[in-house]
Write a structure and sequence with these properties.
By secondary structure, the chain is mainly α. The protein has a domain at about 25-80. The chain has helices spanning about 30-50, 55-70, 75-80; strands spanning about 15, 20. Strands 1-2 form a two-stranded antiparallel ribbon. Strand 1 and strand 2 (about 20) form a beta hairpin. Helix 1 (about 30-50) packs antiparallel against helix 2 (about 55-70). The chain is elongated. It starts with 12 loop residues before the first strand and ends in a 5-residue tail after the last helix. Keywords: Membrane, Transmembrane, Transmembrane helix.
Length: about 80
């Protein structure tokens, strides 16, 4: 029973503040989702910026402003699970 006598449903993965973790408080679901999202976005950036004159500079700029925040969001909480 939960608070107030209400039964709580058991779930395999829960999301709190956009961080996913499972019933044993491991962050593998979150890490899988984040790396997949970052990889897709990185591929999109690579495809759309490859025709620019200064490809390396633009790719670096987009990578650092769009992809890194996705990877680093709440990383102090879940990063020690990757070691």
């Amino acid at each position: 029973m939960g608070g107030g006598g209400v039964a709580l449903d058991r779930v395999d993965v829960i999301k709190d503040l956009d961080v996913h973790f499972d019933s044993v408080l491991a962050f593998e679901p979150h890490i899988d989702r984040v790396t997949s999202k970052a990889s897709r976005l990185l591929g999109f950036i690579k495809r759309t910026t490859s025709d620019f004159k200064h490809y390396g500079t633009i790719f670096y700029l987009y990578r650092s402003t769009l992809v890194l925040p996705i990877l680093l969001y709440c990383s102090p909480i879940w990063s020690h699970f990757t070691k």
